[in-house]
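Example record for the data management plan.
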Amino acid sequence: MKGFLKAVSLVFHPLFAPIAGTLAYFIITPKYSPLELQSGNILPIFILTVIIPIISYLILRNLGLVTSIYMPKIEERKYPLYINIILLFLILYKVIPNNYTIELYYFFVGLIGASTAALLLLFLNLKSSMHLMGMGSLLMFMISLSIHFEINITIALSILTLFTGLVASSRLYLKAHSKAELFVGFCLGILTQLLTVKFWL
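Corresponding structural encoding:
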């Protein structure tokens, strides 16, 4: 069971939330999206939100600034968040404007808001679950896309909700977070996406 729940934590790592949201958009949208538009967004976003953070983590670990991929201590969580916010801003100002999609633009605005809020909470010695923040952001974004495009994706939303619960259970079982930290992380993800909805929905 422990091995399975560790695998769940890895598969649904918050690192994959931005690229998952991007892929979800192109799968759900009824808009015509030429291959150039899709690759112009997906490839650089994958590099900036998955490849570079992994390299950054390895550097931080070699420097002794982080101890593991789960970053249990409050202090070591700050460095990846700084890097994450910078990379998200790069996507917002360099990637999306070249292949403009308003829905993705505000999805990343929401992610920046959630990451910034999580960082500010760290300065108050309050830790939030990045896993649940990522799942909450993705869930709210997909709900918004469903309403925006008037497409029934109930099954996909149900599966994502099930996975969200599974991720929360894994974090509790592994003693990575308290219930309060999971709740705060989930609320950050949901609310920051919800606040951007009025600009594009």
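Summary line stored alongside the record: The two ends are 41 Å apart (CA to CA).
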